[in-house]
Amino acid sequence: MSEQGRRRRHRTVDRVVWILEAAARAPGGVTVAELARTVEAPASSVQDLVNGLVATGFLLEQHRRFRLGPAPHVLNLIAGRVVPRISQAELDELSRVAGTPVLLTVRVGLDAVYLARGGEDEIPRLVPLADQHMARPLLRTAAGRLLLAFTDEVERRGLLDELSRNDPEAVAEFRCALPAIRASRISRSEGLADPEVSALAIPVTDGPVVTGALALMHRRRGRSERLRLDRAAARLLAHIQEKQT
Known about the structure:
Beta-Lactamase, 245 residues, 21% strand, 48% helix, alpha+beta, Arc Repressor Mutant, subunit A
């Protein structure tokens, strides 16, 4: 595999990401000591990283506590289409059309992250996953598998190489399913992340680019749930196409 295809983790980058996420999840901000415990690094090293992040606008400091700064939002604005733009009202409407809960999902590195949800979830323990934007393994969710399938081919090879270190069987299964996912533009998960959950995902697009996924979920009770999700996806796709024309 070429160097371009490899995607190796970098300790400093990981620490910066963990710092930014910790700051984002703490409305009142976090201290350097708290961040040091989070990233399991010396406070002096974390202080150096924090200083750089404050200087570039990724963190803001107030009373020695740090919270997320404006720089990530500015980068989103510059990029124009970093994340799919679907309002809460639109998500609720999509849920009503599908007759199932709908979760808007994006890929973040090796994880799928739920940005928002529409409708009432019939599986209450899954609600925090969306409301708290928790990361889920790509290959263990319908949305993650769909997003990985439509990732740039070179990047996808690098991601699969990394994923195969910990879950080679899941990677092998995904490689087999990849052509069908790309052809149908639908991905499924039958109990991959949770034995009680049956899920299906369809793409969210900006022109020809897949920017996210909509995940539909039901309790897993057998073949009837798969057929129910198929019908829900068909209604949703027809509704989306009608809105776009």
